[in-house]
Specification:
By secondary structure, this protein is of the alpha/beta class. It has 17 helices and 15 strands.
Length: 464
């Protein structure tokens, strides 16, 4: 049999959200290549058109060594910045080798972006915490470019951020941008406070701008969203109905109430706290024993990092203990799926669920809850338990707010969701759907690009 090259697509998260954005503007996406066949599929300039079924943007690959991956990605990015920004200080590690690799790789991304820009200048739009230094290099290489950066995770309070030994370099790297976006105004405010306190930069709260070293950076909130129409279209299809039937049969879910959680196995997602709340729900409300099944999609992530290995073991142990204690030959309280599901399969789970649970300890936004809302049928919609500490809680006001640190209250919120009357579920879901349709990923893109366009029209503003 001949070897065939396939395409893996993420079921959710940032990459899925950005894919339609790149298609809409026919841009160039510069990404680290790590697939088995990535080198085989690019041209002599490391480019390929994508996505495969309807090519509408260019993908430019850069290549990282094993040492760079270990220190840039698993090191500074995910043992330094990620736990720092999510307030998990017990997991923070800063090492010189992490930082040196982070600087080098950021420079490589910046040079690739400068090369792709062409002769006429244009927009370089950097994404997330992996590239905090790239704008400074790009600014030197292409002073004609408009530089923008979107930071997709929380920005912590000054008292937390000051722990970082590279805080000055990070702030100055981000201030090389002309426009800097966060999900929430509170994150933007934390960043402005850090610039004022650490750099003694001039911060104009009216303009939401920082003036530093003769350059102005506008800072603003742009809450990201999803391709709402796409999820609604899949959810309404006959194929989704067929998938739902197969899922019910495969997991023996007939006549069961169903809960759904979809997460990377990350300590910021509150999976352990969720399992504790489920245990208490069954203990306090035995009417759900044998009648309610929680489906946990838990995709292993960053398993090379000890904190993630420990988390996976802890989650597995808690699920096994709960199933051993309460489960029978015909029923298990928790069904675990430890792989990334195709988007269409995930939509079928969303449609089946009576309640979706997002219990993040800290989250920049969380798109799972928006995906769930988009997929609901208003004839018999599910309910949503949403952590107060997820960015999405500031937008979706008709969920049941959850405090993952308060196990008893969390368990009662699960009970309320499962017992919520149909008229209440319909009213809440209709309101959330209306809000979501007015704030799709294309709205996010347009708002950000409009802000960039307005700044470009103004021209560069010097420090007063």
């Amino acid at each position: 049999m001949e070897d065939r090259i396939g395409v893996e697509r993420p079921a959710g998260g940032l990459a899925l959200a950005l894919d339609p954005v790149l298609s809409a503007i026919d841009g160039t996406w510069i990404a680290w290549g790590d697939g088995d066949a990535d080198r085989q599929t690019v041209d002599a300039h490391d480019r390929i058109r994508g996505p495969p079924d309807a090519p509408s943007y260019t993908l430019r690959r850069i290549w990282l060594s094993d040492e760079e991956i270990e220190n840039y990605y698993f090191g500074f990015s995910n043992q330094g910045l990620w736990p720092l920004c999510h307030n998990f200080l017990q997991h923070v590690k800063f090492r010189d080798r992490f930082w040196n690799a982070y600087r080098r790789v950021n420079g490589r991304f910046a040079r690739a972006a400068a090369d792709e820009l062409g002769d006429a200048g244009g927009l370089i739009w950097l994404q997330d915490y992996h590239l905090a230094l790239a704008a400074a290099t790009a600014r030197r290489l292409r002073p004609d470019a408009f530089l923008a950066h979107f930071w997709h995770i929380p920005w912590p309070a000054w008292e937390t951020f000051r722990i970082c030994p590279r805080k000055v370099a990070l702030l100055e790297g981000l201030l090389a941008n002309d426009l800097l976006g966060f999900h929430l105004s509170s994150f933007a405010g934390n960043f402005l406070a850090a610039c004022s306190r650490e750099l003694n930069a001039f911060v104009d709260p009216t303009k939401q701008a920082v003036f530093h070293q003769g350059h102005m950076t506008r800072v603003a909130a742009f809450p990201i969203s999803i391709d709402v129409d796409r999820f609604e279209e899949i959810a309404a299809s006959a194929r989704t109905e067929a998938r739902m039937a197969r899922i019910v049969e495969r997991f023996d879910l007939a006549d069961k109430r169903i809960g759904i959680g979809v997460d990377r196995l990350d300590y910021s997602k509150g999976i352990v706290e969720r399992l504790e709340a489920l245990r208490m729900l069954f203990q306090r409300h035995p009417q759900f024993v044998g009648r309610f099944t929680f489906v946990q999609v838990a995709v292993p992530s960053r398993s090379e990092i000890p904190a993630y290995q420990y988390l996976e073991d802890e989650v597995d142990a808690k699920i096994q203990a709960l199933n051993s204690e309460l489960g029978t030959d015909r029923w298990q309280p928790v069904v675990t799926i430890k792989e990334s599901l195709p988007q269409r399969e995930l939509v079928a789970f969303y449609r089946l669920a009576d309640v979706a649970v997002v219990s993040s300890i800290q989250d920049g936004m969380n798109l799972v809850v928006k995906e769930f809302v988009a997929c609901q049928d208003l004839e018999d919609p599910g309910a949503v338990c949403l952590s107060e500490f997820a960015g999405a809680a500031s937008e979706l006001e008709h969920t049941l707010p959850v405090n993952p640190f308060y196990t008893e209250g969390f368990a009662e919120d699960l009970r309320r969701a499962l017992e919520m009357p149909l008229v209440d579920r319909r009213a809440r879901m209709q309101a959330m759907k209306q809000d979501l349709r007015g704030n799709s990923v294309f709205t996010w893109m347009q708002d950000f690009l409009d802000a960039a366009g307005a700044l470009r029209a103004e021209g560069m503003t010097s420090a007063p």
